[in-house]
Amino acid sequence: MDKRFGDRFWMGSGVGTAALLVGACLYWASPYAATWDEVDFALALRRYDVLAMQPHFPGYPYFILGGMAVHALVANPAKALSILNVLVLCSAAFPIVWLLARHMPRSAALWAALSVLSSSYVLLAAARPMSDGAALGVLWWYIWAVEWARRRTTWPAQLWPAVLFSLLMGIRLSYAPFAAALLILWHEDWKTHRRLGRVAASLLAAAAFQFVWVAAVAATEGGLWPFFKLGWAFVVGHFSDWGGTATSPLPFWERVCRFVLDNFLWTGMASRNAWLLAAYAVVGAIAWRTGRFQRPRPLVVSALLYAVWALLAQNIEKPRHLLPLVHFALFYVWGRFLAAPKAWRLALAAAVVLLQSAIGIGLLHEQAKTPPAVYQLADDLRDKPQPFVVYTWEETRVFDYLHVPFPHKDVFHFSFFLQDKENYRHATIYMTNHVVDGFRAQGVDVSRHVRKVKTYRSSPLADPVYGTITLYEWVEE
């Protein structure tokens, strides 16, 4: 009787905690489109046009389609996308519980899933108008479907993970390394049945599911060939200066240290909070010494491949690219920790969930109530006397989205700036710190030509690149 009461208590408290957490995330989902990519997605809900970067390549059709459905109920397009992310991510509680329930009671599996999904930084990054939250939610369904198909060993069972992987690619193409889980499934099927026809049929079915969304997006761009030409131009840009990938001048070992220590541990796992870092140090040590947990092989292999991809081919300045790795690490830690679900372990898990939730809700509240730095800049510039012009980097995309009444231009090369500013001889010239830093990276020191006007700040955790913007005025000698 006591054990049944204990299971019911932990199950009921877990469900209640989950409901409160989901409600808070929905209420404080971000209403702002504060970066170039977020503006791309928000504009796509009003007019879908990949060539106009609404959104950018490859079009993210399933994410935009879901956003349009929520937008029918929520007027603010950025808020609608943020809410969609929260809903899809929270749905991942089901596959995570099902994956863990093979190793522990359902009540312990629920608290382990809550410990994963209440990750403070993941909640903050997911409740924004990007595709990260929805992609992470679908990723968990996909991993569960692969494990389900591995146990069923029938060919029709392989269609479900193939469908979900197509859905995942139509939400976030950069999760492509997780195709390794499908390859492992097919390889095991080959070893079991030794039938080439089964494997070929699985490959063709997976390709057909991918073709559905590719063909749909290509049709909006005039056909497959124009779509692939557009894609090639975008990919080349992604691996150039603006992409922030391994072609950047950051030394490799410095990049690795930043990837592991800052982006993964300090930001991703601990949300830059010393108390949360200490809590995970304790939980991790206990789990490592006393726990046993059989990790799903497809998850491990695909996560390792994604880690290499995130290190070499994603912008190191944006820790949100590590969201799957943060979730998988938490899944493993809590799987080991609660594999032997004693009462004190469940109590410690509940304490960590409450700590994470409190930190995460505080971050969500700050993100929703404090306008992003670029919004603050736009509001201030509206009140400045004209004529003037503002030179920016990516901020100009947000200015367009906000329909500001003053002229602004993005400028990436100092030579272009020297030519263009001659058109504004009788106007005040402003520029942001990203322009100044960009000139400095080109070997041009403009410090004697600029005067600091004001610095605008919002959450650096929510937006590490544009969370701080300094406005400068150009001063001729």
Q: Residue-averaged pLDDT, rounded?
A: 92
Morphology call: globular
CA radius of gyration is 24 Å
**Stretches where pLDDT falls below 50 for ≥5 residues?**
none
What distance lies between the first and last C-alpha atoms, to the nearest angstrom? 85 Å
Helix content: 55-70%
What strand order characterises the main sheet?
A: 2-1-3-5-4
SSE pattern: HHHHHHHHHHHHHHHHHHEHEHEHEE
**Binned strand content:** 5-15%
Structural class: mainly alpha
The biggest beta sheet reads: 5 strands, mixed
DSSP, total strands: 5
Number of helices: 21
Explain what this protein looks like in three dimensions:
This protein is mainly α. The chain contains 21 helices and 5 strands. The chain has helices at 2-27, 36-44, 61-71, 77-91, 93-100, 106-117, 120-126, 132-152, 159-169, 179-193, 196-220, 224-238, 252-269, 274-290, 297-313, 323-337, 343-369, 373-382, 395-402, 414-420, 433-441, and strands spanning 388-392, 408-410, 428-432, 450-457, 468-474. The protein has a 5-stranded mixed β-sheet with strand order 2-1-3-5-4. It is globular.
